[in-house]
Amino acid sequence: MSDAAAPPASPRAIVYGYAGSPFFKKLQDLLAWYRVGHAVVQVSMIPPRPMLSQELGITYRRIPVLALDGQLYLDTSLQVEVLEKTFAGKQGHGNSLFGPDAELQKRLVANWTDREMFAIIAGLIPPAAWSKEFIDDRKSFSPALRLGERARARPELNKAQLITHLHSLEKTLRESRAEWLLATPEMSYVDIGCAFTLTWLQLSLKAVPDLLPRPSKDNGQLPNSPFPLVLRWLNEVRKELSARRSALPQFANLEGEEAARLILQQAAAGQSVRRQEAAGHIQADDPSALKRGDLTSVTPRDTGRIPQTGTLVALTPTQVTLRVEPPKHPGQSLLVHLPRSHFDVTPATQAKL
Q1: DSSP state, 185?
Q2: What does each C-alpha distance from 125 to 66, 135, 306 come to in angstroms?
Q3: Is the pLDDT of residue 221 over 50?
Q4: Distance (Å, rounded) from C-alpha 309 to C-alpha 324?
Q5: pLDDT band at 140, cuts 50/70/90?
């Protein structure tokens, strides 16, 4: 009889996303690293998404959404922080992705790969691959898509920009003679944060096979490329995360109603939720001038400018916590956490769509 611990009856972590989203894949990579079993709620590429807006009160547009122990976390830059704090180094889970340079790693990924590199790669997607419905939906809230039409009409401009980034990665790996980007014993957050966009480009979009050709099915001989060290590094990142993912406890996908029921149950039973509500703090000199209990909007500063609104519980220089009431579950509430960086926090009446 095996002495391995049986997986819990219900998952601590529930992820909302759709298969084509690279940021959904990034969160799944992080969960694999930290060895966190999780259930998935599949959402559509285009709203409405009632499993979020009606069941949980989430009006924020971007995917993925992470529910952990009955609390909701938006944006992968914050999701990695809560996973690191909750699981890193704990028995049965993965090691820390960060060293003493944690803040620099987070900033590098948030600004370089999540934004600059992602925009370049998205500009390499052939226009025919995007449905009119999808483009019209994204244009309605994303100025970057409107501004990027010219670049997509001339993909060589984006390809030239991509080459500069691949050159930087190749040079870093060549000069360090290390397996990972920061010459760490194990991969770091920068490895996962850089690899997810390039893996999306290489395996899903297949947009630049002359630069990043697909690996062979048996992952044996790597194909020829101007960036052989980048190819090898991407392959190693995928192999490591794939091995961890295959060892995770498996949970069936959930429908929105069932997932909301579990999340609300966890929130009601969780001591951490009550502690956070009681200890919620806002600095008196915060530039927002907001106070605890104010109806507040948190809006991305770049794209997807649809705000998340709720009652302000806590506000620090790096994070904002709101209490939201799901429309389908009157009398119940959830804590929603968002990063402060790249988001504007304002009174709800001042939010701009």
Answers
A1: S
A2: 27, 12, 24
A3: yes
A4: 7
A5: low
